[in-house]
Every structure is written in structure tokens, then in C-alpha cells.
Amino acid sequence: MRLLDYFEKGLETGPDRVAFVDTQTSLTFGEAATVGKRIAAALHAQGLSVDTRAALFSPNDARAFSCLVGMFYAGAVWVPTNARNTVAANAHLLNLTGCEILFYHSALEDEALDLAAAVPSLRLVVCLDRAGRDGAHSMETFTAGATGPAPDVPEAPERITSIFPTGGTTGLSKGARWSQRLWGVMVSAFWANMPSDVPVVHLVAGPMTHAAGGLAVMAMARGGTNVVVPRADPLLIMQTIEQYGITHLYLPPTVLYAMLAHPDVRKFDYSSLRHFVLAAAPCAPEKLREAISVFGPVMCQCYGQAEAPMFITFMPRETLAAAHGDNDTTLFASCGRPSLFVRVAIVDDAGNELPTGERGEIAVSGPLVFDGYLDNPEAMAKAFRKGRLLTGDVGYRDDQGYVYIVDRKKDMIVTGGFNVYSAEVEQVILSHPAIDECAVIGVPDPKWGEAVKAVVEVRQGSEVTPEEIIGLVKAQLGGVHAPKSVEIWPELPRSPAGKVLKRDIRDRYWAQETRAV
Predict the structure, then answer these.
(1) Where are the domains of the chain?
(2) Do 61 and 130 touch, CB atoms closer than 8 A?
(3) CATH of 27-177, one of 3.40.50.300, 3.40.50.980, 3.90.1150.10, 3.30.70.1140
(4) How many CB atoms lie within 10 A of CB 36?
(5) Which of 23, 194, 388, 514, by CA, is between 20 and 30 Å from 371?
(6) Could you give the CA distance from residue 207 to residue 85 in angstroms, rounded to a whole number?
(7) Which of 317, 314, 292, 290 is nearest to 302 (CA)?
(8) What's the pTM value of the predicted model, to 2 decimals?
(9) Angle 354-333-480 from CA coordinates, rounded to 5°
(10) In the beta sheet, which residues pair with residue 486?
(11) Which ranges in 144-275 belong to alpha helices (H)?
């Protein structure tokens, strides 16, 4: 199956069914197919189609999704280019991939033209929504007269169809190669894990270059409507769920926390929801319990990364709802059991599998694993051990097979010879009703080597003292894990995907040190 085929499966459910909608545009599957075929024919006419690497640089927009459909019909390789990244970071990705086509939205024209100047391989620059400047085509002029057939896109399972950037929170992104086979696994996992008894209406609130965009592609396969909002604004999300009858949505925990803190969170109708999936970072158990009480028995969690996307594990709504009803807090700290399409092991530094309950690095294998980094054999050699992908996450499995993530391996704090997993401390701090978000890091300390430090955001209208936070952690985890200091910041730095940038926070305290441990 090709990426194109999943869109056409949606088209088969009815050409008049709405495929993409935002505040300005609504496109049915039939209309998106017409636009997509015209774009593919125009690319094909210029010799820029099958296996040509193409970037789409746009905020969340229905027209951008129709352009993505055109790339599928053309057989182009999709290079997701985040609208919130710096020009330098996006130029790195486009140069890394040898990108030849740049489609951009006029809202990002200055950045797009800077990209065009910084990426010598670009042969074609097209503005999605109006006439471009400085030599950029408009979509209208580019596709004018493009009446020829779209190219014949090969069905080879190992053919690369997209190159996704890795997180980039530890440096410049690597290019993770995704094949048609991998996309097929993800589509299957989506529908296996999140079935629906009603037509799917999926909310794209996160950047379409990340998980929200990937889920949009998966939703297309059975005629799902993708409702596109420009940003992950808590009030806008809640309004949109009610207005459009949203059934499926993905958000990172940081956005969920902001929704729960909003004074109007209980004023909207969420009865349409079937699956509200959290990913990108561990969710604080108390916040997850609160979310079930607000949104209903629809909360679920998945765990993945660019190298094994979305569905390494899955925690279904039914399991969390049952745990909530039984007042069983244990499973709220788990990211679920391994999905059908992946094997999970907990391994030591030599790659040996560890017994149940013992902590080590989460390693995965199976058809969900990506097709390798682009032109980076050194990174590939480090990423695998004994045939398994090393995720960089520390965790363990319980005797029922549930997986628990306790930290990123690089975020572990060694204080006085003891290992402290920052994610465990963060979950305790986030259980405090006054805390919206937090980051726990190790900072230089002459006695302990590293001292545990918490940096927190306080919920609007609430108050908390550092002593309260320290006491809370000490009571639940003990003195070794308790922060030696706590700072309250108005806002923590975040990546374009909404993750808290602990590296940026940590760097503030290690800048004058000769070592970073």
C-alpha cells in the first residue's frame, strides 16, 4: 500500500464526505483529490514527482493538507518542516534531505524565502494561498494547464515516502526514513487501537508536521474528517470539540494540563469524544485521573518516537476507565502494553534483557521500527544493539506486561552516588493542584556532584511555596529524590511540539562548568 492508497480508501467512503476543514476552507475528499491530482500532474510535467523530496512549510491549514495529498499522488517524499522551528533548523533539514520542492503558506513567506536562499537544492518554490514574491510561483499559476496524468507511484513496501526529523532537543535533527511498509503498520495500529462506532472526526491541534499530522493521514483511510485549528489553544480546542463533534484527538500532556487549568473546562459538551490520546511525554497520573472526570472514559495513552512512531505501546481507554472506577492509581503511571506490531524489551547497557520489575533502557524491534537515519551510519550504529532499537528511555515492565517510563536516560540525575529519575519526581510535583508544569534537573553541587532542582509553573490564581513542593516529594519518594531547591518561573521553554526543553533549562546552570555531569 502507498500513502496515496490510504487517501483513496477515504475517497471510496464517499467523495462528498468532508476531508479537511478549517475556519476558512472546507474540502471534500473529491475536491481534495482533484486538487491533489492537479498538483501531481504539474510536478510530473516538470520532472519533479516520484521520489523527489518535497517540503511543506505551513501552519495548520486545510489547503496545506490538500497539498500533502498532491505530494502523495505525485509520489514525492514528504519532508515535514515545522512552522515554529528557526530558519536555521529547517534549512539544516532541507539541506540534509536534498529537498527540491518547497510549498509554503503566505503567513510564513519571509521565512520561506530565507529558506529558499539557504537551500541550494531547491528547484521549485510555490506559495499555497496567493501569488508569491521573489520568483515564487502561486499554486494557481503552477497548476494552470496541468491536465496530464499523475505519475504511476510504485507500491514497493520498502520505498521511502517521508523523512521525519527527530526531536532535535539534543542538537540538530537527524532524518528518520519512513517507508510505505511503516506507514501501513501505523495506519493498522491506529484503527486497531482506536476504533470508532461513529464516523471519525479528528482534531488536528498540534503541528501537522508532528503526531497530529501523522494521525490525520491515518484517519483518512476510513473517510475520517480532519478538523484543522491553527494552534493548540486550550479554549479553542474545547470549543472545537463541541462545535464539530470531535471523536479523536491527540495532545501532549502540557496542553492537557492547560485545558484542565482553564476556568471554563467544564462548560463544554465532550460527549462526541471516543479517543483522547496523550503522547510525546509521560502524563502525571493525577492529571490523567482529573481528565477522565472532565472528558469522560475516553482518555488513552501511546508511546513512540520518530524511530518507532506513535504505537510502541498503547494504553486503551477501557483500561484507564476501569482503573479510575476502581480507584486503582497504579496503571495511571503506565504508557500501556506493547502494541501488536512491536516487541519490547528492557535491557542493560550491554543489550541483555532484564527481568520483570528491573529498570533499564526500553528497546524495541518489529515492523514499527523505522528504516534508518538518512546518510548517518554513525547514528545508526549507536541506535541499535543486538538487533533492537534503543529508545533512550529508561523504564520497566510489571508482571502484567505494562510498561512504565521513568526517565530519559540522558536526564537521569546522579546525586551522592544515587540515581534519581527526574520523571518520577516530576509526576509527584505535578500531583500538586497548584502546579501546571515542571521540570526536574540536576545542577552542579560541590557536595553531591549534582543536586536535584525543580523548576515549576504555577497555575493561575494558585500559590505554592518551595517548601511545600520539597515536602511533597520527600513524603512520597524520600529525601534523596526531594529537590534541594525549587524555582517558580512564569513559563517553561518548550519545543515546537510542546515538549518542555529540559536541556535549555539545564544549560542555564551548567554554562560556567567545565563538565556537564
Answers:
(1) 27-177, 232-408, 412-510
(2) no
(3) 3.40.50.980
(4) 26
(5) 194
(6) 11
(7) 314
(8) 0.86
(9) 75
(10) 454
(11) 180-193, 211-220, 234-244, 253-261
Does residue 169 carry a pLDDT above 70? no
Query: Helices (DSSP H) in 75-146: which residue ranges?
Result: 87-97, 109-118, 139-143
58 exposure class (CB count in 10 Å sphere: 0-12, 13-18, 19+): buried
Q: What confidence category does residue 516 fall into, taking pLDDT thresholds of 50, 70 and 90?
A: very low
What is the grid cell recorded at 82? 515545522
What cell does 423 get?
520523571
Q: How far apart are CA 390 and CA 409, in angstroms?
A: 10
CB-CB contact of 335 with 401 (8 Å): no
Task: Kindly state which CATH superfamily the domain 412-510 is placed in.
Answer: ANL, C-terminal domain (3.30.300.30)
The three grid cell numbers given for residue 212, joined into one nine-digit string: 497530529
> Quick check: 62 and 56 in contact, CB under 8 A?
no
**Calpha distance 313→364 (Å, rounded):** 10
Task: Write phi, then psi, for 423 (nearest 5 degrees).
Answer: -65, -35
Q: Where are the alpha helices (DSSP H) in 223-310?
A: 234-244, 253-261, 285-295
Residue 1's contacts (CB-CB under 8 Å, 6 or more residues apart) are 155, 180, 183, 184, 187
| Grid cell locating 251 | 495532545
Tell me the pLDDT tens digit for each residue of 199-223.
Answer: 999 999 999 998 999 999 999 999 9
Gap between the Cα atoms of 389 and 44, Å rounded: 37
User: Considering just the CA atoms, what is the radius of gyration of the chain in Å?
Assistant: 23
d(Cα 226, Cα 219) in Å, to the nearest integer? 8
Model confidence pLDDT, tens digit, residues 476-507: 888 889 999 999 999 999 876 677 888 889 88
**Superfamily of domain 232-408, CATH level 4:** ANL, N-terminal domain (3.40.50.12780)
**DSSP H or E segment with residue 426:** helix 422-430
Domains 27-177 and 412-510 share a fold: no
Fill in the amino acid letter for 170: T
